Structure formats: C-alpha cells, structure tokens
Amino acid sequence: MKPEMQHDEQTAKDRLRDAGLRPTRQRMALADLIYGSGNRHLSAEELHEEAQQIGVPVSLATVYNTLHQFTESGILRILSIEGAKTYFDTNTSDHHHYFIEDENRVIDIPEGPVAVQNLPKPPEGMEIANVDIVVRLRRKKAADRG
Amino acid sequence: MKPEMQHDEQTAKDRLRDAGLRPTRQRMALADLIYGSGNRHLSAEELHEEAQQIGVPVSLATVYNTLHQFTESGILRILSIEGAKTYFDTNTSDHHHYFIEDENRVIDIPEGPVAVQNLPKPPEGMEIANVDIVVRLRRKKAADRG
DNA sequence: CTGTGTGCAAACTCTTTGCATAAGT
DNA sequence: ACTTATGCAAAGAGTTTGCACACAG
To answer: Residue B45 CA to nucleotide C14 C1', Å?
Structure first.
C-alpha cells in the first residue's frame, strides 16, 4: 500500500472494480459523491446537481445508468418510498426510515435495536431479499399539543 | 330500513357521505369496485380498467381524483412502494406487505402478530402517522436450493 | 485498436391540470 | 339554479432509450 494513495478516488476505484464496473471518470466522481459522506439517500436529480456543482460534467442519463448499475451490483439499494422520484440508499443492509409527509423527505431512523417480531415465513419458493420499515411522520398540529 | 336496500350502492353512498364527498355515480361505482372484494391494492390504471370492464365509463383523470380524495378522507392509504406507479390500499390500519421483485407485485403479509420492536421516539414536533413494513421477496434460484 | 461508457435529445409512462359540460342538491 | 364533479386532451415530471463520439484497457 502506497502511503499517498488513501484518496477517495482509490476507494471509489476499488469499489467499482469489486462491483465489476469499469472505473470511468464519471463513475468514480459519482461514487465519491455517493459514498464520500456517510450513508445517504439520493435521487438521480440530486446526484446530478451535486456533480454539476463540483464541476463534474456528467449527464443525467449517465447518472441514472450509474445508479442502476450500482444497484445491480449491490452497492446501492432502492428505497421503498411512495412518490414520483426513485431514491437510492448507500446503506444496503436492513435498516429503516422516516418519511416526512409534508416535505417528501426521507431520513434514517437513528441506529438502534429496531426489529421486526413474528414475521411469517415467505411463500413457497420465495426468499426474503430485505425488510424495509417506513415510519411516516407528520408535523404535530398546534391544536394537538398539550 | 327498506328490505331491498342492502346493495353495495347504499354502502358506498354512506361511505362517501361519511367522507364528506358527494356520492356521484362515478365515485359510487369506484367505491364499489374498491371495497367490494375485501382488502386490496390497486393502481389508478387498474381501477380504471376494472371500471371499463363492468361498463362504468369513468375517465382516468376522475379515477386519479377519486383515489386522492379517498386518501385525503382517510378511507384509502398510499403504499410505500418503489417504482413508477402509485398503489393504494383499502386497509388503512397498520399492516404490512410483501413486494415481489420480479413481478412488481404487492401482497398483504398474512394477518398475524407482526410487530416492530424498539421503534425510537420521533423527532420533536413530529408524530407517527403510520408504520409500513415492506418485505421484499425474490424467487429462490434453483442453484440455491437444498 | 476494440469495446464499453457517455451525452444528447427524443420517446415513454405515469400523473396532474384547465376548461367546458354534466350531474348532484 | 347553483355548485361541484367529470371528461378530454394537453402539459408536466421523472425516467429510459438510441445512436454517434469519447475514453479505458
């Protein structure tokens, strides 16, 4: 291991190789954005915008392609969220989300021993890919307080 | 109570009045379809098609309007499901779903004591509207058997 | 050099909207 | 009669696709 090689670029490159994807400029830039700041949820549009902001000229089509390739490779997951936009999650393990009704926003439920009890066995020939818990939150009305 | 008045139409009418909606021909027909056969999940397109099949000429726009009005009135719920289409559920209580990856299909998890453990308190000023659990299922591969 | 990835713009799907007409009270 | 709902078609949002060019190996 070379001492000056701990850049995110290197990490991104490895991640892409692991996933069987060619580490192209755009994919590495997107991987940096996606994995550069902890677990997060993002839509194609948001990621595209972020890329533009840091001066990486990647097209929206490529962002979509990349997000789906990452998903197929198992390094991203699609969130089970209602609404028009598709949200991707960098945390591919079983974990859970709040969905803010007013704002159509998704946030992680703080890590903790959240668990599902008494989940029945799936039907014949099926297996559980994963479990998503979505807790829909709404703003308390002033009248409801106290 | 008139002896010949136990039609679904009557039920639908009541349901609509309860929800504060005018019981129009279209809404009653849609309510019949929606609630006529137990709990179910449906998309606007599916409902529209069903209406056509039984000869109720309702427009797709009206189906969308109606589904949203029903949702606002609390007699329908939107499912937290990824994907382009919005699915509505006639069961408005906390209950849960399988999502079949291959087929983009949603089915109820059989009634049972499924419960969530250790759900943290929601953030300040927020309250839980409801909890959705989505268990994503995938077909077992033949190679994985045994 | 060869094959895959990228960008652009057009196509596609699902959903919403505006306005004239029809139906409900 | 007056108000609200409906239907149609067009607009809108998000996503996907096809093809020529560019880049990675």
So the answer is: 9
Convert the pLDDT of each residue in A86-138 to its tens digit. Answer: 999 998 887 889 988 877 788 888 777 788 888 888 888 999 988 888 888 88
The domain that contains B56 carries what CATH number?
1.10.10.10
Q: What is the mean pLDDT of residues A45-63?
A: 95
pLDDT of residue A4: 45
Give the domain extent around B132. Answer: 3-144
Minimum-distance residue to C15 (CA–C1'): B64
Query: What is the spatial distance, in angstroms and rounded to an integer, between the CA atom of B82 and the C1' atom of D23?
Result: 34
Tell me which residue of A60, A56, A57, A118 sits closest to A85, measured CA to CA. Answer: A60
Asked if strand D comes closer than 7 Å to A68 Cβ, the answer is: yes
Comparing CB atoms, the residue among A80, A117, A139 nearest residue B99 is: A80
CA distance B133 to B98: 8
